[in-house]
Amino acid sequence: MTPQSAQPTPAAPQPWWREAVFYQVYPRSFGDTTGDGTGDLAGITARLDHVASLGVDALWLSPFYPSPQVDAGYDVADYCDVDPMFGTLDDLDTLVAAAHARGLRVTIDLVPNHCSDQHPWFQAALAAGRGSAERELFHFVEGRGEHGELPPNNWRSAFGGPSWTRVTEPDGTPGQWYYHLFAPEQPDFDWGRPEVLAEFERILRFWLDRGIDGFRIDVSDALIKDTAWEDTPDGNPLIPKDDASGVHEIYRAFRAVMDSYDGDRMAVIETGAPDDVVALFLRPDEMHLAFNFRFVKAGWDAAAIRAAVDESLAAYGAVGAPTTWVTDNHDTTRSVTRYGADVRLEGEYVPGSTAELPLDDAALARGTRRARAMAVLLLGLPGAAYVYAGQELGLPEVVDLPAEVLQDPIVARSGGTSRGRDGCRVPLPWAGSRPPFGFAPDGTTTWLPQPEDWAPLTAESQADDDASMLALYRALGALRRAEPALRGGDVEWLEQTATRLVLRRTPAAGVGGRALTLVVNLGEEAAPLPDGELLLATAPLVGGMLAGESAGVLA
C-alpha cells in the first residue's frame, strides 16, 4: 500500500474570550428611553443591532447596580440588583437574552475593592462601633496623635486628598479612621476576612446563574493592603501584588467559581501593574484576561508602540495567556483628542492626560487620522480587544464642559486642578441635527450636555459614508472575522522606523487562512506600501502610496 500523506491536525477550539472583541457600554450615556436624561438598560437593548454591526463578540456593561452615584456607580450599595435609574432585573434579563440572540456575550463590571458607604455592611459597621465583627470587614484603624486625631498614615487617595476618613462613634465621640483608596464614600473591604470572599463568591454565582458570561474586575490588583500602615515617601499606598500576595488566592477562588459553569465564563482584570506582575494574575488557575495599559499609554510613538506589543506578548505568553488591546475606556481621555494633542496617559488606577484644552480643527483632524490608524493595530493584533462606545464614531473628548455640570469626584478631590473623566462619558449622538441627537426623546436635557456641533458624528450621518469612522470599524470587524491572522497567531516585525511600522501577521498553526501585513504610517508624508493586495486602508492612497498618519492591511 502507498502510505497516505499525513494530514495536519486541526487546532483545538479556543475559548471564545481569547480572541474576542468586547464593546464597552457606559449605561448612563448609551440610550435613554424614559426622557430623564440618563441612559438605561432598555436603551442598550434598543441599540444592539448597532453593536452587532461592528462585528464584535461581547458587551461589557459598566455598573448598573443600586448606588448613590458618587463615583458613577462604582460605589455599589447592592451587588445583586439594578438601580431604578437604569431599570429592573427583568430589563437586564431582556437585554441579556436579546444580546445572546444576536450572538453577543454579556460581561459586567464587578467592584470587589470597595463598596458604597451606603452598603448595609458598612452601615452596620458604623453602628456597631469599635472592636465589632462588623468593622472587621473593612479597614478601621485608630488614629495617631494623643487623641487619635491624626490619620493612621500619609497615604493618598487615587482621587486626590487623604485615604482616611474619621468616623463619629455611636456615642457621638470622634472615633476610628477607615481606609479608602478612592473617595470617602467608597470604603475598602478587608480581604483578609473570609466573609468577604464568601460574599463575592455568592455574588459571582448570582450573576452567572442569570446567564452573565463574564466580568470586568475593577481595581483588581489592589484588594490586599499592607496593614502595617507605614508612611511612604510619596504617599502612595503599599499594595502587595507579587507571587506571595494573598490577592492571587482570591482570584483562584473566583476562577473556581467560573470554571464550575459551562460556556467558558471569564473575567478580565483592570491593573496598571508592570507586565511581569500582570502575568502573575493570568496563570491558568487565575484570571483569563488583563487590560493592556502599556498599549493605551504608548501614545503616537513607533518605538513605544512596538515595545508595548513585544513586551506584553512575551510576558503574557509565558503564562499561556492572550494579550488584551485597548486604546479607550470610561477612565481615559478619548484617543482622538490624545493623539491630536500628542500626549500620553499617566497614572496607575485612574490614567489621566494633559489634553485639557480645546483643540483646533487641525489638531482634531490629526487626532482622527491617528485614531483611525491605531484602530487597525487594535483589531489586528493577536488576542482580545476592547472598543469603548463612541470610539467607533470618532468622538473627541469634550474638554469644555461647564464646571457646574462636572460630576466626577476627582474634580473636588483635586481642588479643581483636574477636570476628571466626564469628558469621555458624554451621551452618544445617534441621529438628528441637534442635541440630544437621538440619545433621548427630543427636548430632553441630558445628564452631561452634548456639543452642539456633533451632528456630523452621529451614527446616522456616518452610516452611508464609506469614509467614516463607523464604516472603518465595521470593515475592520468584518475583516477580523474573515481573517484568522487578525485574531491569533504570530507577529513578525518587518520594519520599524520613527515614522513607519510594518508587521506580518501569520495565523496560528492548524487554523488555516493566509498571512497578512499591517502597515502604519506614523509620519505626515505619504509612504510606499509593501507588496501585496490592499484589503483595507484608513485613508485614500496618494499616488499609490499610503497617506500620512494612516494604516493599511495587505494580503
Automatic annotation (TrEMBL):
Keywords attached to this entry: Hydrolase
Superkingdom, natural source: Bacteria
A Pfam entry, by short name: Alpha-amylase
Gene Ontology MF terms in the entry: hydrolase activity
Domain Glycosyl hydrolase family 13 catalytic intervals: 24-425
UniProt record similarity statement: Belongs to the glycosyl hydrolase 13 family.
Name recorded for this polypeptide: Glycoside hydrolase family 13 protein
Organism: Flavimobilis rhizosphaerae
